[in-house]
Design goal:
Blueprint lengths: L1 E8 L3 H12 L4 E4 L11 E2 L9 E2 H14 L3 E3 L3 E7 L2 E6 L5 E8 L21 E2 L2 H4 L7 E5 L3 H10 L5 E5 L7 H8 L4 E3 L3 E5 L6 E4 L4 E2 L3 E4 L6 H7 L25 E3 L10 H27 L1
Helix pairs in contact: 1-2, 1-7, 4-5
Length: about 300
């Protein structure tokens, strides 16, 4: 099992700034994530300190990653699908399945922004439509379900449901995941349907899912799982507390510390305002706090 002092989940401005500071503190640092998954990647910036004109988000992210790597951080373009607390640290399991042990975690995965909803979806939320397999999967024990999405969240969700539901359909024209995860999917009972979801059917509860080719899947549940495994799903699996008002963001203090020692969070996942300046500042603080936490831990072990 590989060991790192700091593992950062997320390759946006918060995660990259955290990696720069952690690596500068001479901590063995690993970043997980894809630059293109950041909301900044396809945007432009001109209201950020020091910019003389409009700069592409992609350019900023690539420059940030180059900095982090130059200072000694490592980067892997895969998603993390599982986190566990261990006596000696935190177990991190990415798509490849190669387990890693981290002494500290920085959660900087951003927030999930649901794209345009399909017909019938909004009317049936809580009546068979869900956005969290880990939260609601158990309610569909022994029933047919569909998972909509092309990233690791969807594949991992479908695999989880394959041990719960009677039948699982994964609806996606293509899959943007590692070959390892594709192989695991192929070896499972999940049925990959290469199409696009068009309409959730039903009145009082979900009765089916209509696809773009006119096919109707007879299912009782439809899970929309876009992108990577969500920060909230990964965080709550460790017992990380969410904000008490709407339970949508990770609760942190001014040191970006969560309620779990050794776990820090930064960027959009901690709540608004959703600005690059805030994300970068929080990433810096999270890394410095993680470094202080590890230093204190080492002192305690020596005494």
């Amino acid at each position: 099992m590989e060991r790192f002092e700091v593992v950062i989940l997320g390759c946006g401005p918060a995660g990259l700034q955290a990696a720069i500071h952690a690596a500068r503190r001479r901590l063995r640092t690993l970043i997980f994530g894809r630059l293109e998954a950041s909301a900044l990647f396809r945007a432009h910036m001109e209201n950020y300190f020091g910019l003389r004109g409009k700069v592409s988000g992609e350019e900023l992210l690539r420059a940030g990653l180059e900095q982090a790597l130059r200072f000694g951080a490592e980067h892997r373009t895969e998603d993390v699908v599982k986190l566990e607390m261990r006596e000696e640290g935190f177990l991190v399991v990415p798509e490849s399945g190669r387990e890693i042990l981290a002494q500290a975690l920085i959660l900087a995965l951003g927030v999930s922004r649901r794209k345009k909803k399909i017909r019938g979806e909004e009317d049936l939320v809580g009546k068979g439509v869900s956005y969290c397999v880990d939260c609601d999967g158990f309610f569909f024990r022994g029933q047919p379900v569909a998972v909509v999405g092309e990233g690791s969240a969807a594949v991992y969700g479908a695999l989880t449901l394959s041990h719960i539901a009677s039948e699982v359909f994964l609806v996606a024209r293509e899959l943007k995941v590692s070959e390892t995860l594709k192989e695991e999917l192929a070896a499972s009972t999940v049925k990959w349907v290469r199409s696009q979801a068009e309409e959730v059917l039903g009145r009082e509860e979900v009765e089916g899912l209509r696809l773009s080719d006119g096919t109707v899947l007879s299912v009782k549940g439809v899970f929309f799982e876009e992108g990577a495994r969500g920060a909230l799903e990964l965080a709550t699996s460790l017992g990380v507390a969410l904000d008490p008002e709407n339970m949508r963001y990770i609760q942190v203090d001014r040191r970006q510390t969560t309620n779990i020692p050794g776990v820090f969070a930064a960027g959009d996942v901690t709540g608004p305002p959703f600005q690059v300046a805030k994300a970068v500042g929080e990433g810096c603080i999270a890394a410095l706090s993680a470094a202080d936490y590890l230093a204190e831990k080492r002192r305690a072990q020596k005494s």
